[in-house]
Amino acid sequence: MTTLFDTMTGSVTQLINPGQDTFSLYVCGPTVQDRPHLGHGRIVATYDLLRRHLRQQGLQVNLVMNVTDVDDKIITRAAQESTSAEAIASRYEAIWWETMDELGVERPDSTPHATDWVQAMIIKIQLMIDAQAAYVIEDGVYLRIASVPHYGLLTKQAFDQLQPGNRVEVNQAKESPLDFALWKRVDVSELGFDSPWGYGRPGWHTECVTMSIELLGPTFDLHGGGMDLIFPHHENELAQAQVLKTPFARHWAHVGFVEMNGEKMSKSIGNTFDLTEAIRLFGGRAVRLAYLRAYYRSPLEMSESTLNDALASLNRIDNFLDRGPYGRPEAGAVAAFTRAIDNDLDTPTAFSVLFDHVREGNTLYDLRQFDSAADKAATVHAMLDWIGLAPTTERLSIPPEISEAVEARQQAKQNRDYATADALRAVIEAAGFAIFDTKDGTELRKDRRLVIDRPSNEASSPEN
RNA sequence: GGCGGUGUGGCCGAGUGGUUAGGCAGAGGCCUGCAAAGCCUUGCACAGCGGUUCGAAUCCGCUCGCCGCCUCCA
Fold first, then answer.
1. Which bases of strand B have any atom within 7 Å of the beta carbon of a protein residue?
2. Beta strand pairing status for A219-226 and A22-27?
3. pLDDT at position A32 over 70
4. Is the CB of A445 under 7 A from strand B?
5. β strands within A248-312, DSSP E
6. What domains are there in chain A, each with its CATH number?
7. Which of the 404-423 residues on chain A come under 7 Å of nucleic strand B at their beta carbon?
8. Interface pTM (ipTM) of the complex?
9. Nucleotide nearest to A356 (CA to C1')
10. What is the mean pLDDT of residues A307-329?
11. SS3 of residue A20 by DSSP
């Protein structure tokens, strides 16, 4: 039943065929040249959601996310820092995966590195040359767009209307400005590889088409990435697949941009928000919630304010879960939640459902209907678990001395000895608990004061 | 110039031809010694102008604004 918007058809389509029990997914991963920013996290979190959602419906999902570890920018950076490209790539790849761990993103099943697949790329390039679809000129090998049967399927654009060179100078040696490099020759002093067309490096589009086909086969279920990959990257992958007579991806999906002040977050504008910093300030779960509460295809505004807002929402959920034990999840409610996700990953509606149950559960606690409240808690927990947002810490456990302090404080309160009561509160809060007096007694929660309210030098250890 | 997207209440952010999206923040109330929690109530929201309709924020037209892509980008 899962549906997803397919960039190719421009409509929401059935993602799974009847009887299908496996799902192969290729997501364009990072060029490991710098630290990830909030835009990168959204892509990874979105496909992590899709993967979990499909798997929990019984599908065996195979997720491949490539790592581009050879690239001009990596080399430039290495030169700037007087180190090797390999050192830059391995440093930022390590940061990438550690950061994704903190977002609650499961590692992909495969993470092919471009440098390990150069021979396979060379074979593909040779096939394209043999098919008269690619040509060799002075500085490399280019794909001849004119020989692609259907160029522009993804972009949906009349290519005679494009303005080549709008932003980048066109190599005049190419037969057509739209032709793109499969192999770029470089000086032997630079990082590169031997090939029939001289020492050089593979083109990015060739890297992904090669690794996806090699690892997932000539046809696979879904190819994904950010909106900005539609053109040229995915269009050009598809062009090569056509030339290679490979069916390639059955569906294409693209995630909307993260924006800041209404503008796409990108390095060239310089308005990036470092993902690791966001996680440090607000916690990985709050950042993940910030992503998932929006619809994945819409642009998403991200700032300290919106992240703080996300953390406040998360605290609302966690405070509720702290109020008591888990009972039995309400299957119908959980189904309503997952049904929303089934509908083109409609997480906003799913969260609307989730928060309804948080509110109902809180009301049940206030009414002292603890069994029903526990079932609500289990329901909400099951929803969170479905999307990878369940609390990662253990249930609230209260040490005996804190329980005693709570008891003593209750006594002091009854005696109207508020000085003692407040002193005991200080002890309890120092242990990391927050106190809430209700009609029926004192409840303890985890201290979840919003970190943004603290001076930034004290905000170094967000929860979880 | 071409193509695509978008404009929702203080903010984030869904949705849809007619019943409250949801969250955050704000206001009032309940509870309360206090308290960062919880519950209840509350906000002439749907860019503008026309049109279709019994009824439009939701459909159509026009106008305006913003954003993205047109070989760095997630």
1. 1-6, 11-15, 21-25, 31-40, 66-74
2. parallel
3. yes
4. yes
5. 248-255, 258-260, 263-264, 300-301
6. 3-255 (3.40.50.620), 263-386 (1.10.730.10), 400-458 (no CATH)
7. 409, 413, 418, 421-422
8. 0.93
9. B22
10. 94
11. coil
